[in-house]
């Protein structure tokens, strides 16, 4: 949805950044700014600063910063349009109705109908549980020791023994049979007509990250099969990209997720206070799940069943999580099978202890691979060495250096480290000769590699220097006249930085004093930028010298002290670096320009002049 600049600016003005952030984070006034603990990384000393005058925030610990929209996007894991809606609702600003093409309107209408239908179905199941005919379902949940509050929180329900109750109800609400069938709530056959998909089952509504019911899971009461039945994929539900409980877990803000295998495990953990628990939905963990998890945390605790199948599933999950650079740890539940049983028998405190003692993923993998092998037998130990080398070989596509893994194997099993490295090199060479190396590489996550490369480019020194220069100019508009003879918009990297420089320069040349928060908004509302670009936009106008012109220190009185280094020469060095990078890009791409040599000499001359005047800024 596109919103006009006027609407965006009205929302921004009605959402003071201090008021908004203080509703999420505890901040205190220190000098002209407000400070507190950063909500985006773990810290004990406050490095999170909010400027009311600039309507910007900045963490000098992790580097994240931006305006009020950026904060909501980061905190709520929301897109820019979603952040606009959140802040508009908060300020009581009425947003214009979305405009779509006819095809888009039709698709949007269908999605809304399916969402409305699932909400109505969830309400129906919820009330059936509390009626006399839902007594068996209610008894089942109470036997599982769920409180009324927990049942209400998760919207648990019951599907009647009759096989068409829900269909009749949904028809009465105006839904067509085709819609009910497409939503996966009923099945049509020539013999029996429309029959409910779920009947004689306790029901678990599945919600997306925004608390909308998108599917259901049902457990049969009695001995029927399948024991658990889940909605099939529909236009509003993709089981490989949704996690049960994520809508609640995202708000836990514990910088971790506990990954379980079933609905009841998640519910039991939430009831015990571990509200960061989630589960996959009738399927093993997928790359879609890992990509979703990556949006919320980098740390995943696996709380799978302690039997053989659970351990096998944990091994598979660890491999997928590794592709996405997620840190995995394994919680040991013995002597109990699953988290639900564990909590019932040993309680919350003991589970917390198991969490603290969770086993690093690689240690778990080594134990799993070793299980059943007699490594005291030299022949078996040699075979095991080859198994280990084959297992960790793909790690080279996820990590810059796999030496720590080889060293761990060497210490644990007393293999000579130099021989291990030589064996790995030989194995690598053999794979490259047969082409298997390429196939293994292709099994890694290409989108994650691309994202990593993009992040590395954006976190490089040249990109930081451009951010510093943009921030400095926005903070010091009086310095623009000094810099303008030596700096042009084209000196910045194409894309977000060059567009930001153009907005900044245009404001200066029209005699305006640019407001970083407003410039950021203009860029955020440009629909041509992708998600990575939007992340970069949120970092603009908040990067200072040495990653902080304003260094935060704390005295005994907990006051903030501004320490400004030799600003003139430092900015001169940054300016020279930006010009040198521009020269390098021109040398790489401008050789076909008829005036190549003239332009090259001019660029070099400008740099030489700047070197002599580096302390003049």
Key terms for this structure?
617 residues, alpha+beta, DNA Primase, Chain A, DNA primase DNAg catalytic core, N-terminal domain, Dna Topoisomerase Vi A Subunit, Chain: A, domain 2, 5 domains, 27 helices, 16 strands
Average pLDDT over all residues:
83
Task: Give the end-to-end Cα distance, rounded to a whole number of Å.
Answer: 43 Å
Instruction: Domain count, please report it.
Output: 5
As laid out across the biggest beta sheet, the strand order is: 1-2-3-4-5
Q: Indicate the CATH class of the largest domain.
A: Mainly Alpha
Quaternary state of the chains? single chain
Main sheet: strands, sense, barrel: 5 strands, antiparallel
Structure description:
With 617 residues, this protein is α+β, with helices and mostly antiparallel strands. The chain folds into five domains: 87 residues, Zinc finger, CHC2-typedomain (DNA Primase, Chain A, Alpha-Beta Complex); 135 residues, Alpha-Beta Complex (DNA primase DNAg catalytic core, N-terminal domain), CATH 3.90.980.10; 112 residues, Dna Topoisomerase Vi A Subunit, Chain: A, domain 2; 79 residues, no CATH class; 156 residues, DNAb Helicase, Chain A. It has 27 helices and 16 strands. The strands form four sheets. It has a five-stranded antiparallel β-sheet. β12, α11 and β13 form a beta-alpha-beta unit. α21 packs across α26 and α26 runs antiparallel to α27. The chain is globular. It starts with a helix and ends in a 5-residue tail after the last helix.
Q: How would you sum up this structure in a few lines?
A:
The chain is an alpha+beta fold.
């Amino acid at each position: 949805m596109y919103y006009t600049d006027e609407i965006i600016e009205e929302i921004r003005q009605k959402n003071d950044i201090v008021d908004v952030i203080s509703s999420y984070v505890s901040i205190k006034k220190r000098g002209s700014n407000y400070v507190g603990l950063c909500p985006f990384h773990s810290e004990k000393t406050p490095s999170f600063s909010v400027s009311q005058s600039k309507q910007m925030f900045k963490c000098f610990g992790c580097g994240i910063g931006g305006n009020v929209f950026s904060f909501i996007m980061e905190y709520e894991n929301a897109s820019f349009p979603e952040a606009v809606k959140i802040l508009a609702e908060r300020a009581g600003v009425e947003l214009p109705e979305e405009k779509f093409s006819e095809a888009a309107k039709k698709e949007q209408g269908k999605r809304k109908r399916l969402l409305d239908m699932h909400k109505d179905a969830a309400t129906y199941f919820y009330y059936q549980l509390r009626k006399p005919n839902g007594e068996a379902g209610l008894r089942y949940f109470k036997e599982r020791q769920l409180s009324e509050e927990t049942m209400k929180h998760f919207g648990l329900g019951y599907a009647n023994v009759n096989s068409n109750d829900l269909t009749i109800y949904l028809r009465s609400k105006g839904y067509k049979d085709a819609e009910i069938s497409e939503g996966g709530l009923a099945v049509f056959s020539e013999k029996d007509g429309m029959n409910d998909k779920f009947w004689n089952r306790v029901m678990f509504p599945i919600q997306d990250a925004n608390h909308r019911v998108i599917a259901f899971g049902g457990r049969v009461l009695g001995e029927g099969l399948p024991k658990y039945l889940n909605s099939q994929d529909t236009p509003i539900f993709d089981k490989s990209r949704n996690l049960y409980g994520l809508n609640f877990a995202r708000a836990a803000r514990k910088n971790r997720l506990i990954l379980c295998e079933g609905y009841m495990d998640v519910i039991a953990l939430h009831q015990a206070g571990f509200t960061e628990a989630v589960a996959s939905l009738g399927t093993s963990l997928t790359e879609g799940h890992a990509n979703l998890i990556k949006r919320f945390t980098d740390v995943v605790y696996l709380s799978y069943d302690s039997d053989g199948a659970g351990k096998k599933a944990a091994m598979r999950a660890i491999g997928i999580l590794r592709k996405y650079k997620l840190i995995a740890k394994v919680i040991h539940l013995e002597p109990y099978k699953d988290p639900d049983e564990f909590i019932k028998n040993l309680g919350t405190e003991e589970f917390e202890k198991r969490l603290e003692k969770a086993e690093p993923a690689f240690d778990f993998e080594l134990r799993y691979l070793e299980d059943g092998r007699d490594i005291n037998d030299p022949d078996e130990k040699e075979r095991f060495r080859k198994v280990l080398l084959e297992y960790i070989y793909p790690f080279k596509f996820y990590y810059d250096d796999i030496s720590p893994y080889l060293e761990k194997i060497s210490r644990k099993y007393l293999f000579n480290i130099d021989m291990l490295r030589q064996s790995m090199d030989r194995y690598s060479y053999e794979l490259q000769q047969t082409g298997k190396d390429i196939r293994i590489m292709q099994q890694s996550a290409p989108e994650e590699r691309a994202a990593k490369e993009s992040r590395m480019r954006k976190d490089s020194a040249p990109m930081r220097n451009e951010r510093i220069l943009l921030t400095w100019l926005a903070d010091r508009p009086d310095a623009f006249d000094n810099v303008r003879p030596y700096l042009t918009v084209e000196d910045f990297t194409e894309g977000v930085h060059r567009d930001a420089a153009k907005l900044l320069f245009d404001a200066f040349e029209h005699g305006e004093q640019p407001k970083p928060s407003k410039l950021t908004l203009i860029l955020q509302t440009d629909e041509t930028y992708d998600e990575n670009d939007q992340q970069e936009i949120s970092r603009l106008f908040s990067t200072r010298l040495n990653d902080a012109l304003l260094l935060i220190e704390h005295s005994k009185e907990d006051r903030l002290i501004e320490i400004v280094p030799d600003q003139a020469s430092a900015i001169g060095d940054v300016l020279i670096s930006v010009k040198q990078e521009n020269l390098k890009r021109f040398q790489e791409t401008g050789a076909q320009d008829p005036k190549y040599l003239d332009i090259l000499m001019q660029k070099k001359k400008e740099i030489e002049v700047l070197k002599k005047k580096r302390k003049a800024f």
